[in-house]
Amino acid sequence: MTKIINLTPHTLNIFTSDNQEVTIQPSGIIARRAVTREVTGEVEGITLQKSVYSSLIFENKDKNQVEFLNDPSSIVVVSSLCLNGVDTPDNFYAPGEQLRNSEGKPIGAKGLTK
Predict the structure, then answer these.
(1) How far is CA 28 from the centre of its chain?
(2) In what order do the strands lie in the sheet containing 92-100?
(3) Using CA atoms in the order 100, 92, 3, 113, what is the torsion angle rounded to 10 degrees?
């Protein structure tokens, strides 16, 4: 069986194709990207900016950088922001389409997505 590693700070509730809920606990390592913003112009007094994202960074809960040894045979779940980068390994996924209950509260995601 393929191992699923959660590199988000949250417990994930992922729903399978037959509507079974799978809970994936955080691993203790969080993947993220730092962002800087470059001013690209101004329109009617409104500053226009471009966001520039760093390569993947791995941190512990105290925000200290740690090493993450990626096992390509595992599925690694990260945020959508972390997923979108040229340095993202092929085995990284983000939670799929968000599911909500009858009150509109998020309850989980449909599968995982690239």
Answers:
(1) 14
(2) 4-6, 75-77, 92-100, 106-113, 12-15, 21-24
(3) 30
pLDDT at 2: 83
Give tens-digit pLDDT for 22-38: 999 999 999 999 999 99
Q: What is the 3-state secondary structure (H, E, C) of 32-61?
A: ECCEEEEEEEEECCEEEEEEEECCCEEECC
Distance CA 32, CA 82 (A): 6
- The helix/strand/coil state of 108 is strand
For 83, phi then psi, to 5°, come to: -65, -30
Angle at 15 between CA 9 and CA 20, to 5 degrees: 125
User: Which regions of the chain are under pLDDT 70?
Assistant: 1
Collapse the DSSP code of 80 into the 3-class scheme (helix H, G, I; strand E, B; otherwise coil) and give the result.
helix
